[in-house]
Design goal:
alpha/beta, binds pyridoxal-5'-phosphate
Length: 405
């Protein structure tokens, strides 16, 4: 077992003061460098979770350390009562990468990016029909968009929604990946469709080719907005800046968070064309959204991805993983899926918990995202050798999990 006496004491203190919405985390981390993290008892791990697809440049990356240190020593906070250069520059950069004219709203995380998107959708719906006949949102079963009330209202995981009903609506859920069902449900009562390019929390499940294009066409037919949630998929995770535009689909609204800040909290809601001008002054806001320090970190992330050609690197190392996993022959492993450095190991039994524990004991942090699925979302700087070390360790990890289950 990797836990130790320091962890044990911390876990007792954690249990005494933290709300029980998370299970007690099985590890206490104190330090990181590159794709390696150290726990409170001195064990090291290869971080293949990346703080749930967040630590895009790994830990303590010099570009982020430099940008954040410089910004915090210059001007840490302004609120939205003042313009600041990192915020304007980041908005310009994101729109440039998206390749579209538009406007940006900055917030703190994925849920608040989707809250902004849903308020834009409301504005759009009321604009289309002042009697309130165009407020319906079409979302997908298995889709995850966040824990706040609006984001939860379009999250297609009943167990997460049920304790908090009633939620805002109307929302219609259609099976993820079924273009026909989505097209059929988009009629002239619909203000928007919200969709992930690949289900993240749902277990790294990509839809069939053409799915996003079908959603785009369905929205265009009735004047509904297409909202693409790139909170997990965006900013290099799949080897592309944006999954949607990589598939030739330009959404009306794109939401971002997670990897954008490389570990600093930031979310963004990008409105393309007229969708970027739906808010009127006073409609929405955030005290901390687009904080200069977080914007400086995000700019460092974008610069580093660009200058080090990490998009190509992510595709290359992702392919190496795919080839490596193909060659693992184990009764617990039924296959793998995913793109770039966003991968799922699909198990033959619901033993992802024991696999996560066995991996940790072997020095790898992985994520049991579904009972039979292990998610890998490491730093985008993961080296080929580091990726390879996990492939080589995997059979023994699966053996240990099988023995423990
Ligand atoms: N959207 C997607 C696709 C996500 O994967 C997540 C989080 O996992 C969210 C939204 C919510 O993001 P946050 O936890 O930063 O609020």
């Amino acid at each position: 077992m990797t836990a130790g006496p320091v962890y044990d004491r911390m876990a007792i203190r954690w249990d005494a003061v933290m709300m029980p919405n998370y299970g007690t985390p099985p590890v206490a981390l104190v330090r990181g460098a590159g794709s390696t993290v150290w726990d409170a008892d001195g064990h090291t791990y290869l971080d293949l979770v990346g703080g749930i697809a967040v630590s895009s440049l790994g830990h303590a990356h010099p570009a982020i350390v430099e940008a954040v240190s410089r910004q915090v020593a210059t001007l840490a906070h302004t609120s939205n009562l003042a313009i600041h250069e990192p915020g304007v520059r980041l908005a310009e950069r994101l729109l440039g990468l998206l390749g579209a004219a538009g406007r940006v709203f900055f917030c703190q995380d994925g849920a608040t990016a989707n809250e902004a998107a849903l308020k834009l959708v409301r504005r759009h719906g009321w604009g289309l029909d002042p009697t309130g006949g165009r407020l319906r949102v079409v979302a997908t079963g298995g889709g995850f968009h966040g824990r706040t009330f609006g984001a939860l209202s379009v999250t297609g995981i009943p167990s997460k929604r049920a304790p908090f009903e009633p939620l805002p609506g109307p929302v219609t859920f259609v099976p993820y990946g079924d273009a026909e069902a989505l097209t059929e449900s988009v009629d002239d009562t619909v203000a928007a469709v919200i969709v992930e390019p690949t289900l993240g929390e749902g277990g790294v499940v990509a839809p069939p080719a053409g799915y996003l294009a079908a959603a785009r066409a369905a929205c265009d037919r009735v004047g509904a907005l297409l909202v693409v949630d790139e909170v997990q998929s965006g900013i290099g995770r799949t080897g592309e800046w944006f999954s949607a535009t990589a598939q030739g689909v330009l959404p009306d609204i794109v939401t971002l968070a997670k990897g954008l800040g490389g570990g600093l909290p930031i979310g963004a809601c990008l409105g393309v064309g007229s969708a970027g001008r739906l808010f009127e002054p006073g409609d929405h806001g955030s005290t901390f959204g687009g904080n200069p320090v977080s914007c400086a970190a995000a700019l460092a992330v974008l610069d580093t991805i660009e200058t080090e050609d990490l998009l190509t690197h992510v595709k290359d190392v992702g392919e190496l993983w795919a080839t490596g996993f193909d060659a693992v022959d184990h009764s617990l492993l039924s296959g793998h899926r995913g793109l770039g450095l966003w991968r799922a190991l699909v198990l033959t039994q619901p033993v992802s918990g024991p696999v996560e524990t066995a991996a940790r004991n072997a020095g790898f942090l992985v994520n049991a995202v579904r009972p039979d699925v292990i998610r890998l979302a490491p730093p985008l700087i993961l080296t080929a050798d580091e990726a390879d070390s996990f492939v080589h360790a995997l059979p023994a990890i699966l053996d240990a999990a099988e023995a423990a289950a």
